[in-house]
Design brief:
4 copies of one chain form a homotetramer. With 277 residues, chain A is an alpha/beta fold. Chain A is built from 8 helices and 15 strands. The mean pLDDT of chain A is 96. Chains A, B, C, D: Pathway: Bacterial outer membrane biogenesis; lipopolysaccharide biosynthesis; Carbohydrate biosynthesis; 3-deoxy-D-manno-octulosonate biosynthesis; 3-deoxy-D-manno-octulosonate from D-ribulose 5-phosphate: step 2/3.
Chain lengths: 277, 277, 277, 277
């Protein structure tokens, strides 16, 4: 599949979706985008900038939700044109999809909404590639039905993304088998190393997270074999507006990506044995 | 709390939300409504008729979705006025809420959408009592945050509903502890005995279900202590448009309710010990 | 099935297995046994006294393990003959089974050991009724194989006991469906309301527990329909040697049992609907 | 830690525990041992031969259990002396430990038995290195207590082994975070790629398995960072006496190990980022 000008798939190096969880300020967005562009260029990693204009499903209604649609899109457009990189954002049940699609290169749908037929089809119809996050309640083989819904409206640029599966209360587990199982959809499989280490609702009125497991799960997923990787990174995670506890420090990103790139090369240098048994 | 003219809570007999999963035809709706009114009148059970005009989150986009908004509301209105019973229906991310709220007595929000802040608040703002289904991925104590969102827009008539929790792949488990834990929200707690026995995605392109566990779980939940009970019932479950495998046969409903009513009386005849340790 | 002189099964009132988790002192054992005999006599509940001489699988090797085999059996014998009630104790991988079987009326096997073929068969061969606890990792339908192992050595007096199923880390869930599913073994099904509310390993070097959920789960299980109920009770749970956090206060037991007995009568007054669909 | 003459740990290449699940015949044992020695020598992988003389916890008592203690030990001794490789076998609740310890180089304890204090301490006291499999019901941080029990009797050569965690009914999940978490025990962490793809009880009277996920999980675990890897391999898995469905074909082992070795080198070439946050 061609995505934002680069080929993606299990025969290609993994592409990276990365950025701060939320668009906090224009300054933060522009600076992180530039830094991420530098890092990924040095490492030869195809890169898409990700940031959210609205956190629409926070644990508590008292939590900050972000800069909003208008300011958010303006900033993403600036990132796109001035830094010169493709941008992705997530859309919600009431987002004006055409407006967002007119700016961003890739749309992303939230895990909680993966079963809403109209929503998935409306997003797919906006004519942009879509990264569909798998619900925390959905078996990997059940993504086939979700992908079919999206393709049924004519969009063939669909990605599927694992972000952790419900594991008792206030915890998620990343089943690495699922990354292989979802290849059957024919879509590029993406692993979200950030939300997979979330502890949903784990801090009472907001979700906790375990940043220290990001490199563990990212290495595991790359070695399992994926087309793309999703990591949220922030220059100051302790003060991030959202998802700080599971955000990866920007100044530690390059060393993480170096290892991941080397692992990716090893895995993709030969055929995946699970496909030839 | 007063709901549709009857008092509900742990000091009152349980109220029943019941009907065929989907509004299939006017005839089916009117006939089942009349029968259900008869049965519940005989047993002294406060009753709200439930049926859906749109199945908005089916496993596959090839499955039937229902009669649609216009026909659905017309039929629900007919049930309400001609049979003389309150009616409930579920709304979705793109439902015209005011239109639905102008007809039905109670709105219900789907489990998958319980974390969508705007959606929950929009539904709560429609000014009707709301039955909020707990997500299959949400710990019982995390419903506190959800209820707060709904109350924040001024609606005090909120119910919380357990409908099974993610338990490995393609299965749900009903944690009876959760029914007691959710009392801390201050809301009437409802147990959905129908969707709790769903096997999500269990039949490939649609969900399976285990009807034989409906009485087991309903008895258990009533004995655990609940304000309300939700059961989908159909005169011919094998040919139901939706959720047939976990639908309860209408001709077996009265005997089920008799046992449940007797259990309810026993439990509510004395103080719940868990509250006085 | 006849057990210790009383008939047990879904057509009979539930029998109760109860006592302090561990045999702490002769005094505690004799006093609790006498009190429990009084309470259950008043309520007409067939009763078996339970207490352990050795806690063989504690979280940490620093925790107290009990009075040991010799003193334990002496005390159980005293309870049996002086109070005049049948007694049950649990045995472990290295327990001298014949010695224990010469004293107690019922043997119990620990959940962790339910898959050890030799152990299960050795216990079954000791010639006493056996209460086999289902592993925290075993599906209810998989108890069929376990029961077959026990019956294969000629023991037909086998009971199966639910005590909670692994649910994420450090938590258990009680699947009430399992109580109905295990009826297919042909064995009386027992629900252990004490260990089902354990939080395994939840306090670092020992397990935690949620005593407040004992009545909730006990009511639910009795209403689901069981042959027997297992509850550990202690006059001073806060100072119990073992399993204090999930032990039920002895002075609150009678009111709990009253409700449970009334629920049991309601459920068993008619046919279980799940059996006649 | 020094194990069988080679250093093991996160600064060393992973060591491999491998062999057919059960000792079926002397011929099979000698042939597979020789082949495995060849393969691992070529790849520079420290190797320990594994095979079981008794399958003591099979789903059904009708399943084959193996050649038994006497024949098993004779064959393992032959493998050890004639092929010249260290051997490991698993012991059970009633195994004569000294007899086994007089032959094998490493003892292994079954997952189901990880909480049996006496058993763990008896095995540790036999004076050989011990590979302790983590129970399918035990959180990774709770292995600390288990290791302490083993060390308390004076054995410092303890390994901890992940083999999948209970995930709903008849399924296991491998939480890669657990591999990092168990490093806190100070023990070499081993990943069992064979039993992690077991479907417990999944075929009615025996467990199923998903051999195709062995390479996926093995790659993921090696990339997460482990000291040792456990894989059962058989020249003819379809006809293996035990665990065939999750056994890896011997003729595909070398290509699998090549990839794993390359991944291992990448991961261990730099510091693990999770340790320096």
């Amino acid at each position: 599949m061609n995505l934002c000008g680069f080929e993606v798939g299990l025969e290609q190096p993994f592409f990276l979706i990365c950025g701060p969880c939320a668009i906090e300020t224009e300054k933060l967005a522009m600076e992180t985008a530039a830094q991420l562009k530098d890092i990924t260029s040095r490492l030869g990693i195809p890169f898409i900038y990700k940031s959210s204009f609205d956190k629409a499903n926070r644990s508590s209604h008292n939590s900050a939700r972000g800069v909003g649609l208008e300011a958010g899109l303006r900033i993403l457009e600036q990132v796109k044109t001035e830094v010169g990189i493709p941008v992705l954002t997530d859309v919600h049940e009431d987002t004006p999809l055409d407006e967002v699609a007119s700016v961003v290169d890739v749309l992303q749908t939230p895990a909680f909404l993966c079963r809403q037929t109209n929503f998935i089809q409306n997003v797919a119809q906006a004519g942009k590639p879509v990264n569909i996050k798998k619900g925390q309640f959905l078996a990997p083989w059940d993504m086939g039905n979700v992908v079919e819904k999206a393709r049924a409206v004519g969009n063939q640029q669909i990605m599927v993304c694992e972000r952790g599966y419900t594991f008792g209360y206030n915890n998620l587990v990343s089943d690495m088998r699922g990354l292989a199982i979802m290849r059957a959809t024919g879509c590029p499989v993406v692993f979200d190393a950030t939300h997979s280490v979330q502890l949903p609702g784990g801090q009472g009125s907001c979700s906790g997270g375990q940043r220290e497991h990001v490199p563990v799960l990212a290495r595991a997923a790359v070695a399992a074999g994926i087309a793309g990787l999703f990591i949220e990174s922030h220059p100051d995670p302790a003060n991030a507006m959202s998802d700080g506890p599971n955000s990866w420090p920007l100044d530690r990103l390059e060393e993480l990506l170096k290892t991941l790139t080397a692992l990716d090369q090893v895995v993709k240098a030969q055929k995946l044995l699970e496909n030839s048994l």
